[in-house]
Every structure is written in structure tokens, then in C-alpha cells.
Automatic annotation (TrEMBL):
InterPro entries: Class_I_gatase-like (IPR029062), Glyco_hydro_b (IPR013780), Ig-like_fold (IPR013783), Lact_bio_phlase-like_N (IPR035080), Lacto-N-biose_phosphorylase (IPR012711), LBP_C (IPR035356), LBP_M (IPR035363). Gene3D superfamilies: 3.40.50.880, Glycosidases (3.20.20.80), Golgi alpha-mannosidase II (2.60.40.1180), Immunoglobulins (2.60.40.10). The lineage of its organism: Bacteria, Bacillati, Bacillota, Bacilli, Lactobacillales. It comes from the Bacteria. NCBIfam families: 1,3-beta-galactosyl-N-acetylhexosamine phosphorylase. SUPFAM superfamilies: Class I glutamine amidotransferase-like. It comes from Pilibacter termitis. Transmembrane segments: none annotated. It holds the Pfam family LBP_C. This is 1,3-beta-galactosyl-N-acetylhexosamine phosphorylase.
Amino acid sequence: MSKGRVTLPSEKNYFKETMRIAEKWGADAIRDSDGTKLDDELKKSPFKIYNAYFPTRAHNDFITQHMEECPEMYLMSERVMATNEEVEIAFMREYYPEQLKVDYLHNPKEYWEVIDRTTGSVVSTEEWSLDSEKNSITIYKAKKWHEYTVSFLAYIIWDPVEMYNHLTNDWGDKEHEIPFDVLQPHSYQFVLETMANWLKENPDVDVVRFTTFFYQFSLVFNQYGKEKFVDWFGYGASVSPLMLEKFKEAKGYALRAEDFIDEGYYNSSFRIPTQNYLDYIDFVQQFVTKTVRKLTDMVHSSGKEAMMFLGDQWLGTEPYGNYFKETGLDAVVGSVGDGTTLRMISDIPHVKYTEGRFLPYFFPDTFFAGNEENIVNEARMNWVQARRAILRSPIERMGYGGYLTLADKFPAFIETVAEITEEFRQIHKEIKGSRAKTKLNVALLNHWGALRSWQAFTVAHALYCKEAYSYYGVLEALSGMDVEVSFISFEDVLTDGIDQTIDVIINAGAMNTAFSGGEIWKNERLISCLNEWIYNGGGFIGVGEPSGCEHQGRTFQMAHALGVDKEVGYSLSTDKYFKTAEKTHFITEGMMKFDFGEVVNSVYSLSENTEILEFSNDEVHISANEFGNGRTIYLAGLPFSFENARLLMRSLYFAARKEKEMLEGYSTNIFCEVSVFPEVKRYCVINNSATTQETTVTFGEQESERLTLNAYEIVWRDLL
């Protein structure tokens, strides 16, 4: 058993047990968790000590004296149908009063909006009145049979993450932690002074783990205390009259409530972002970055490291944004849900190291009597998915979070994690800081580009969504693949053209979303640029409804290059003759079954030149097409599975015309993958399945090696 690279959670009155598990897992760092404290004996031990730090919560003695400085957000009432000219809307009816309190301090007639949702028009402030006792407004000249909503400002009076933890762990009468807004004058001064005092009072802490900084991602609960709305990227909880005022000063124009309400979509990352919203994100990032830097400078002056948890109040610190480098952070730690979220953490630039917090989290909703088998399976599968990505882009450290007293009740879990942590260290020992060989450059094209690297198709962190998993699988497959992955925006293409080092561009997503593109596909320069690039030898893969935008008789605006289009009911009178699938093809070689997830219907071939590779239910699900010197591929959907990871791999190499290169470090078994590390002249083969697998590893013209791998095994070999 080696030691290092592992962070272990602990809590008070658990010193001896912590030492025992730390020895077993080879931990070299100890951390606290939300709701726990560390023993003084632990703090004075040789372990590196992480201490969670909440800059804008857990100080009720302060904020209760300044409740006007709680963070705020715009919310929309339920939609009410007008059956008379006079309509009353109880706008707080669907919200949790213990989390939210209406802002009556700032003039509602100035900041709120009542909107006729049938027409989209704003109701004049003279035509509605407010009853603050009832939290309702009354419209006096409503149009009958029209829908109306109220967009209003509310204070967040219970920190949403602490609220979630409180309800999950049944903390009972524990005082609710009230958040505060660092933009406000008293809060700003308090945050700086409290940080300075805390650093003096905690000399034994080595790493200040900011959890996180100032503004919570959008997490709103309904009247029953259940999650109502969540957007891991939502900037809604950073809005306040003061923020709006400062934005106007900086940008030269004013925002309105609807810029945040967004017809009730709240600027979900699936929405095509408006320029106003992008400007607001940029403004908040600049403010947050400058304020974070003040805190990290203080941490460094005290001789400690500054680490950020990628979650909770992380808005404005987006690690792939323009300003992240200026935060001065030493490290980022994030929750690892799968390979995609692992890469989201491990690829972060401008920090000394990255760390992953693995699952399961040691909370009672998972660690309860009789659930050990599921706990062990979750830990194992979490590691297997993350391991693919680690071999491509390694995090430097790993760890777990929650209550060690819970985890310690499950010996099989303790043993499993011991195996995982040892394997993690072994990977680092083998690769010696080198990176795995990549053979293709692949770019994902959408509206968000590099800002949301490894974050497309995400509603909440690594959680399943029926409408998105068919596209999220593209990221998950790529996270462990032997290709270099970048993220580009439509604006990048329009401004700078296409980087000629890119081999394949992927456009994936549902029509009219930020990920497939929507109206941007009516831009002739975008279409021309991509068509020219493909025609001259580029590879293009469309998944779902790529370039989907109804325009000039096409649904897919890249239909000519793709060789397929989608029927939306307008051309049913036009016969579609081309329905014969190829019996064999490089892309589908060895594939026994296909899974397209929430399959896109009614895609058809445009001509006999399109190679149909899967045709069923009278529609195309996989196709390939030659377009000049370039190649294009269409896939109806790609939920993650190891079969689909192989399908995407073969599609990429075919689109790039690099079929032979694919065989340089290739496993014939879809459940096994190869990573080659030329600098240390080593390669490894992993078995991603729970059963024994046999595979042949090929290196082009070199001799192939036949291997048998046990369940989840990783084997290392010398390169010839």
C-alpha cells in the first residue's frame, strides 16, 4: 500500500477511526464537510488539513442585522388566465417561504414586470396594484382569456445548498444559514474582515477550501420544500437592484426583469443566449474575479493554499472563462459524477492542481442499513467511468466527502475504496506526469464554446435528463477517448474561421437549442465557412438535429453536406426513395446492436450517394456521406454506453480519413480501451466491465497482443 494523493473526510470525536481509515486508503490530507468540524488532534497531525470556508453564509449574527443585503433573484409567478377584466395573481404561491422573501424595499413599480404572456406585452404599472400583505397583485384592465404573469424580486433567506443538506440529513431545529451578497457595502467589508480574522485564528489549516464564493447557481424550491428549478449555470441568484445599477454604469444600458425571467426559462443553458445575458455574465465574472482575488491574496499572505470547490456558489468563477486566471486560485476540487465531469475538472487551466471528490457522498440518503451492495457498486462504477478520463487528462488528487461515521459502518465499501485509491496512485506512478497519446483533434461546436467546456447538455451536475442524455453521451464517450477535444462557438467560427488543425467538428443537440444552434444557421457566412472547410477535407458529425433550423425548405441547414434531412411535415408529398442500408461499413463494423436514446424521427436520405448504415422504422439513424474531399456522419442520438463509445470512435476516424491511425493502440473488445504513454514507453489496457474480457491490442503493423482482463482490471505493458 502506497500513500498520498487522497483526501479523507473526518469529523469530531473520530480521531482513532480516522487514523485507521487514512492508513487503509493511503490518505495524506484530511478535510471537514458541511456540518462537521475536525478534532484539534487531527489539525496538529502531519496530514495536510483542508478547511471548508463559506465567505457569504454561516454568519447569521451579522446578516440578521442587514437582511436588506441578502442575495436576490428574479422569479416568475404561475401563469393565470384572465376570465374577467380584473385578475389577482398570488405570485409567491408556488415558492417556499422559508427560502424566499419578497423584496418590497425596492420599488416594485420600477423593478417588477407584469406581462401578458399571450402577446408578450408589458402591462402598464398604472394598470396593476400590489398587496404586500397577501403577496399578490391585481390587474384592472386585463384582456379576457389571456395569460398573465408577475416577474418579481425576492431575497434568498436560506442558503439553498445548506437547505438541501438540512432537509436531506434531517437537521431538525438547526438554525437556517442565511446568505449575504458581497456586492453590498456591509457584506463586502464583513467578508474581508472575517477572512482576515479567520486566517489568524486557524494557523493549523493548510488549504482554505472555498465552498464556493458569492453567488449560488439557480436552485429554487417550491411551496412543498421540493426542488422546483435548478440550473447549474444559472446566474439568476446574482441579481439585485445594486447589481443592475452597476451593470448599467459599466455597459451603458439597462436590463429589465424579462432579461432574467426569459419567458419562464430563466436563461437555461439550453436556451440560445441573448447578447444582454452574455453581457451580464461577463460583468458578474469581472466583479467576482476581482473580489475573489482579494481573498486569495489574503490566503497566500497567511502561507496557505486557496482551493475552490466547483459547485455551490461558483457563479462568476467559471474556470474556462476570460478572467479565471486572475482569481489567483491554487487548486480546484469538484464532484466527479462520471468521465465528463472528471474532464471538466482536470482540464481546468491556470491552477497548480485539480482534485476530484468521488461518489458516493457519505450522506444518510445512501449510507443506510441494507444498502451496502448498492454503495459498493456505485463506488466501483463511479471510478470506472472516471478512470477512462483520468487516463486522458489526470486529476492530481482524489477524495470523498460527507460523514466518515456513516461510511465506516460498511466494511466492503471501505475495502473497495482502498483498492480504488491504490489504483489511482498506481496510474500516477506509471505515467510519471506524462499525457496519453492523441491521434485526432475534435471540436464541439455550439453557442457556448470554450466557456462551457465539458458542460454541454447539463441541467444539474452529472444528473440524468430524458431530453438530453442522447447528446450528453457524446461528451462521456469523448472523455476517455484518444482524441484532443476542444469547444468552439459559432461566434468563433464567424470571427476567426476554422482552425485548420481540427480534424472533425461535432454539432449535436435538439433543434433550436444553444447546442445545435437554432437561428444562427440562417447566417450565410457560417454555412459557407463550414461547407468550404468540409469540402476541402474536414470531417463533420451531426448528432440528433444538427444545424436544425427551418429555413428555405431545409430542416438541417447542413443537409447538403450531411446527405440527410428531417421531415417535419411540410414535404410529405415528396417521395423519399433511398432506404437501403449498407450491409457492411467501417463505422458499424463489429456492432451488434444500436441505441439512439430518445431517437430523432423522420430523418431521410437525400440521394443514392448517401451511405445509409442503419435504417429502421422507415427512417435513417446512421449515415455517412462524401462531400468533396470531406466526410460527414449522421447519428440520430448517442446515449453513453461502451458500444456507443466505440461507434463514435469509428465515426471520428472515418470522418477524418484516418482509419489506419485508429489501429495504433486499439482494443478489439469494445469493453476494453487502450491508453498509450510514449514519453514513458508504457501503455495500459482497462476492462470497463464487471466480467472477465478477452481482447487483442493492435499497434498498426506491429504484432498484436492477446490479453485476458479480470473485471474492472487495468494492466500495464512496455511499448515495443
